[in-house]
Amino acid sequence: MASKPDRTPSWTCLARVLAVSLAYLVVSLLILWGAVALYFDLPRVRPRYVAIAAYLLALLAIFCLLRRPWLRLSAWTACFVAVLVWWLCLKPSNDRAWQLDVSRTAWAEVHNDQIVIHDVRNCEYRSEFDYICSWETRSYDLSRLRGLDAYFVYWGSPWISHTMVSFQFGKEDYIAFSIETRKEVGETYSAVTGFFRQYELIYIAADERDLVRLRTNYRKDEEVYLYHLAIDAARARQRFLEYIARLNELHEQPEWYNALTRNCTTNIFEQRKHSGNALPQMSAWNWRVLLNGKLDELLYREGAFSGNLPFEELRRRAYINPAAQKADRDPEFSVRIREGLPGFENEGSVSH
């Protein structure tokens, strides 16, 4: 009696099925991204829906007409690539109807050690959305640069924060920088649209009574932590000039913001890389940079913060909301929020 043929699928056949399934999954995600990109980034409603309908009909026609999986996948990929090429060709602009708080882009003149920054923001707030903005020209002498501080702002998830930096000149003069979305009139930030080409990128140079007090005194449920960086004068100077370079670049040539690749933290690491000062153990694609809510703990382990305390104690004492709310409109706001913070005891005495 003849034996029955072995109908158990071979490993080769199984591997082929898995490879095709994985390819379908990847390409499906890519074409889904393409549809969402068309939805968010086409500026007008009617062309938006026409383009999405044409895109989906083309995908459906490919599915019906092409039977071979790899031909079908190749054609679908070509549709995605066509959308991607269009998306990459979208150009950012500095000429839009901007909200008042981002209506100007700061820029600087560099004359050896003398830095003149134009359009430094100094808003006076009555509430989060009710304010009067002044735009000032301020001068800084690099020989008087004393230190660099880092702010971490949390508003919900402990895994995500907004990072800002502040440079100290002389005894009481501070200039803060915040990397943000540049929103148009009537536009609000969305974490979803932040992954598409909806917002331009802006480097805001501002008084701490603006950037910090907005978050501690006027926005709800934002928690701000302030750390003094253990950095010498030479490196503080490099960091400052990196920010100045980016101010001028964006003033001349706008760029898109992206919630994943061009945000408040990845830009800091990218600008360091471009200036030749990248951290060897970290990059903009490090998961602890992308999920930057834990970045302060990582920086602590790398010895970046002043203050000889265990991290949890240092972080507890770095919380400045109560001090900022008490200082409020005090002209010495920056001094008041630093009083008693660990790491600031010898502030300004960095080594050369």
Keywords:
alpha+beta, 3-stranded antiparallel beta sheet, 2 domains, 352 residues, 8 strands
Please provide a written account of the structure.
The structure is a single chain. The protein has 352 residues and is of the alpha+beta class. The chain has two domains: 78 residues; 239 residues, no CATH class. It is built from eleven helices and eight strands. The chain has a five-stranded antiparallel sheet with strand order 7-6-5-4-8, with helices on both faces. A three-stranded antiparallel sheet has the order 1-2-3.
Summarize the structure.
It is built from eleven helices and eight strands. The chain has 352 residues and is an alpha+beta fold. The strands form two sheets. Strands 7-6-5-4-8 form a five-stranded antiparallel sheet, with helices on both faces. Strands 1-2-3 form a three-stranded antiparallel sheet.
Uncertain residue ranges: 348-352
| Mean pLDDT across residues | 91
Largest sheet: 5 strands, antiparallel
The percentage helix is 40-55%
Percent strand equals 15-25%
The structural domain count equals 2
Cα radius of gyration in angstroms = 25 Å
Report the end-to-end length measured between terminal Cα atoms. 93 Å
Structural class: alpha+beta
Number of helical stretches of at least 4 residues:
11
Which strands sit side by side, in order, in the main sheet? 7-6-5-4-8
Q: How would you describe the shape?
A: elongated
Number of strands: 8
Write down the secondary-structure element order.
Answer: HHHEEEEEEEHEHHHHHHH
